[in-house]
Write a structure and sequence with these properties.
mainly alpha; 2 domains
Length: 100
């Protein structure tokens, strides 16, 4: 049984699929790596000169600015990427902002 998931394919072309060298070339030109960037905006106490945000995601030295993304996470969660964790962080920061 063949299941159709798309009406037509844009890429790779039929010629590329039928030729190993052409398919290898298409793969080298098209396929790449992806990564979830995190840990570029260190969170920590105000006394640490290397931190960017405090424990409430407030940017040090700038009133009214928070960082709420994967950059404050020290590492990527092992359970499927950063999306769910960033959403959880955002939900919590919204509470802190609304209480301020």
């Amino acid at each position: 049984m063949r299941i159709t998931v798309a009406d037509y394919r844009i890429s790779p072309t039929e010629d590329s699929l039928n030729n190993h060298d052409a398919l290898d070339l298409w793969l080298r030109q098209t396929v790449g790596t992806a990564r979830h960037v995190s840990g570029t905006c260190k969170m920590g106490p105000v006394s640490d000169p290397m931190t960017v945000v405090d424990q409430h995601c407030r940017v040090k030295g700038i009133v009214g600015l928070w960082v709420v993304d994967a950059s404050i996470m020290p590492r990527v969660p092992r359970s499927g990427g950063t999306r769910a964790t960033v959403l959880m962080i955002a939900e919590r920061v919204v509470e802190w902002i609304s209480e301020a």
